[in-house]
Design a protein that fits this description.
It is built from 33 helices and 29 strands. 46% of the residues lie in helices and 20% in strands. Helix 12 runs parallel beside helix 14. The strands form 7 sheets. It has a 5-stranded antiparallel β-sheet with strand order 1-2-29-28-27, with no helix packed on it.
Length: 839
């Protein structure tokens, strides 16, 4: 125990801080850290170094080199810097390196030195140049804040959705502030800066002077300021050697410490953890590191070489040319178990387990003592929690063995927490390995989540390890293995030294039909890398045509896209390709393409019928489809032409087309329509009224209604209207006119070809029984009964039916007998039926 706590340093009475080595750095640095621009990503992220020759007069002609290392010092990328002078480096939350240049341009690089994109911080920054810059993180993403040569601030809270905000001017600011930082309050980014003894807070609307509560008197300048990892706390280093610590809102003071050093520190960062007992600030000078908090004494370390501080969620990483260390507050569970003379249940359980391994009876004594106090469950939980905060695997195993030993004496202890901790530690130990170089703590891992950790392994192209973790944790394929394989495939298509055929085969062999993997996404990446043929080969494995077609169109492989769309049977998809082809190809090539695809041609014709009639005509002409062309001209004659001459001309064109199609019936019908149109126009000119666009029957009817019977008969003869049809037309028209006299003359003009029952029916329809009876007597014997019933003469209808001895007619008359008035008639019919049956 004593040996284990040798590196514990007390800060006040309530907390201990310890510093342990993460890695022995084996990087071959050619420069001191002080001569480089340095940026280290949080959560055990990578380190970027750019030697800064722009501050050295003699070396201005030497091009600097941008080096990117893992946290363990393993080189990830190295590239010669060919752009302008860089003012600041920083990592985004997605582990993209942001390089802020003096001209306000921000260049974005990937983890392996691949250039991603660039953006500008605005014309004002370009004109006034950049004096200083900060990369900061908010809940919206990663932001950039710029101090220009005009001593104005410009910032963007999210570089992924760039919206520049020019901050208000600070009154009387003639030189650069002594120090400044970004604060995030109420979901809004602010700038806090120091000008002499004054502090100013800039938001989007105003510049406000602020005063830290309880600040020691005599301050003439602020030399350094630091905001905590969660943006909740703020530390200020004054020229009097005092460090003021309080809330970031500057409304509450936590403490103040006199470090008795007035020289400005190189770095100052917060060192705290969630539910911290003693929040502390770490201050670094050239060869001294000091940890201060709400205690009269501080913790001091000697720095043997140039070091750089990286604030983390639960501590501070410190790296130099030779080592990478982690400084943090000892977690409560570890403190309870390992502090000297501890009688905590976890400490006793750890001792019991060690004695058990020695086969000593003291194990039983320790165990009984814990059980008598009823603290065995608490002891197991303490050991599990402490194991999570340990960095060395041997100590993790020791604590987990103790927890497992204690669990054996509990009846209902849920195993979930123990199993989960074993899994988490196995994952953490794997990623902490020197060759991986992601020194996450347990608290950081839980905050980061397993999905983000997998994303970071994928970024480092550590696909096998990521897949092993997914399989070990039994993550759903869509969230785990499938997603990682898709990323691997996207990386694979970038390997231009391998042939398209080999890459496509390797990807298909590895992925197969893995659920959640989209071949179209991989093909899109291949196309983005300039490998069109590879993209087409990959699309062959994509089962969803809806994903294939858009990418094929983007690649200008429209004909292949059309074939795929037709194979899918999705008409909407076919229409999409057709419209794209129509805009891409000239008219002749487009039509030739359609001729080779009958289904597409048919769909396009349907589209043209509603949207593009002229195009439809061109299609029929190209195919020599005279039948459809004739039909088209007929529709066009009525839809587009208002003048009679134009309509007749269109119909003549249609008739010619029908003759070419050898459809004589349609041609003759079209010619008859042309004659009718001309006749209707003449009738309008001679008689007035509306004749145009009436049918032949309606034209005859209109003439009869107008009293032009001879004209109507002539028209019937000209168009060979059958007599029966003409009599019906004339009968209906005269009845509508109620010209009963003319109707009677018409009925006597010659023998009716339709008989006289229609006369009875029409008269009754006009409610004229008197006229109907005139024609009922003239109706032939076979329809006599029906005519008499229509005029209401039931008795006479019965006599005729009895005379005919027709059972159907008798039944029909009987059905019309109603009430007492027709009782005698009904009896008469029944007697006639009875007599007929006797015979």
């Amino acid at each position: 125990m004593d040996c284990y706590t040798a590196n514990w340093n007390p800060l006040g009475d309530s907390a201990f801080y310890r510093k342990y080595e993460l890695y022995s750095m084996d990087w071959d640095l050619k420069e001191e850290l002080r001569d480089c621009l340095v940026a280290a990503a949080p959560y055990g992220g990578p380190i970027a170094l750019l030697r800064n020759p722009w501050r050295k007069e003699k070396a201005a002609s030497v091009r600097p080199v941008l080096d990117i290392y893992s946290a363990s010092g393993v080189p990830l990328a190295s590239l010669l810097w060919k752009s302008g002078p860089v003012v600041s480096l920083g990592w985004s939350a997605e582990e993209e390196l942001l390089c802020v240049q003096e001209d306000g341009a921000v260049l974005v690089y990937g983890l392996h030195g691949d250039f991603r994109r660039h953006f500008s911080m605005g014309n004002e920054v370009l004109q006034n140049r950049v004096l200083d810059a900060r990369i900061f993180h908010t809940e919206f993403g990663s932001g950039v804040a710029i101090l220009t040569g005009a001593h104005r601030f410009t910032l963007s809270a999210n570089v992924g959705d760039l919206k520049l905000r020019r901050m208000p001017e600070v009154p009387g600011l003639q030189s650069a502030p002594s120090c400044w930082t970004t604060l995030c309050q109420d979901r809004v980014a602010h700038i806090l800066l120091a000008v002499g003894p004054d502090l100013y807070l800039l938001d989007h609307a105003a510049c406000s002077a602020v005063i830290p509560p309880g600040l020691a008197p005599g301050v003439s300048s602020f030399l350094q300021m630091a905001v905590s990892f969660t943006y909740r706390h703020l530390a200020l280093f004054t020229d009097t050697g005092y460090i003021w610590m309080g809330t970031a809102s500057l409304k509450e003071k936590l403490c103040e410490f006199n470090c008795n050093i007035r020289a400005p520190p190189k770095q100052m960062v917060w060192c705290s953890r969630p539910r911290s007992k003693e929040r502390a600030v770490v201050v670094a000078w050239e060869r001294r590191l000091m940890v201060v908090g709400d205690a009269p004494e501080s913790i001091q370390f000697v720095l043997d070489e140039d070091s750089y501080l990286v604030p983390e969620l639960d501590g501070v990483r410190i790296f130099s040319r030779s080592t990478h260390e982690f400084l943090h507050e000892v977690p409560a569970a570890s403190e309870e178990i390992f502090k000297i003379a501890s009688m905590a249940p976890g400490a006793l359980l750890l001792e019991a387990q060690k004695e058990y391994e020695k086969e000593s009876q003291k194990a039983d004594e320790y165990l009984r003592e814990i059980q008598e106090l009823g603290q065995l469950t608490q002891a197991v939980q303490q050991c599990i929690e402490a194991a999570g905060h340990e960095h060395q695997p041997e100590m993790q195993k020791s604590l987990l063995r103790a927890a497992s030993f204690g669990k054996c004496f509990l009846d209902r202890f849920p195993p979930d927490s123990f199993v989960r901790m074993c899994q988490d530690l196995r994952v953490l130990n794997a990623v902490r390995d020197y060759h991986i170089g992601i020194p996450l703590t347990y608290s950081q891992y839980k905050q980061l989540t397993i999905q983000v950790l997998l994303d970071r392994l994928v970024l480092r192209r550590l696909y096998p390890l990521a897949i092993q973790i997914c399989e070990y944790l039994r993550l759903p394929e869509v969230q785990g293995v499938s997603r990682i394989l898709a990323h691997w495939a996207c990386y694979k298509v970038q390997q231009k030294d391998v042939s398209d055929e080999d890459v496509a085969r390797a990807i298909n062999q590895k992925l197969g039909d893995t659920p959640g993997v989209s071949y179209s996404d991989i093909a899109a990446r291949a196309y983005g890398c300039g490998r069109t043929e590879l993209a087409i080969k990959l699309l062959e494995y994509e089962p969803r045509s809806g994903e294939q077609v858009p990418l094929l169109l983007k690649m200008k492989r429209s004909k292949l896209a059309l074939s795929k769309a037709i194979e899918s049977g999705d008409t909407d998809l076919v229409f999409t390709v057709l419209l794209h082809l129509k805009n891409e190809l000239n008219r002749g090539d487009f039509f030739m393409t359609l001729r080779n695809q009958p289904m597409a041609l048919s769909l396009y014709r349907q589209f043209c019928k509603h949207q593009e009639l002229e195009t439809l005509k061109d299609l029929y002409n190209q195919d020599d489809n005279h039948q459809e062309l004739g039909s088209f001209h007929i529709r066009a004659s009525y839809a587009a032409e208002e003048r009679i001459e134009g309509r007749v001309a269109a119909l003549q064109t249609a008739a010619d087309a029908f003759y070419k199609a050898k459809n004589e019936f349609a041609a003759k019908a079209t010619e008859d329509q042309m004659r009718l149109l001309r006749l209707q126009r003449r009738l309008e000119d001679e008689l007035g009224g509306q004749f145009l666009d009436l049918s032949l029957h309606d034209t005859v009817t209109t003439l009869i209604l107008g009293g032009h019977n001879k004209r109507a008969e002539q028209l019937a003869r000209d168009f060979r209207i059958p007599d029966k049809r003409l009599w019906w037309l004339k009968l209906t028209a005269l009845a509508d006119l109620e010209d009963w006299e003319e109707l009677e003359k018409f009925s006597k003009s010659k023998k009716s070809p339709i008989g006289y029952l229609p006369f009875v029916e029409i008269c009754m329809k006009q409610h004229n029984k008197y006229e109907a009876k005139k024609y009922a007597s003239r109706v032939g014997p076979e329809q006599k009964v029906k005519a008499l019933l229509l005029v209401g003469d039931v008795a006479q209808a019965a006599d005729v039916a009895i005379e005919h001895r027709n059972e159907a007619e008798l039944s029909l008359v009987l059905s019309h007998c109603t009430g007492a008035t027709d009782g005698a008639t009904a009896d008469k019919i029944q007697r006639a039926r009875a007599q007929a049956q006797k015979k």
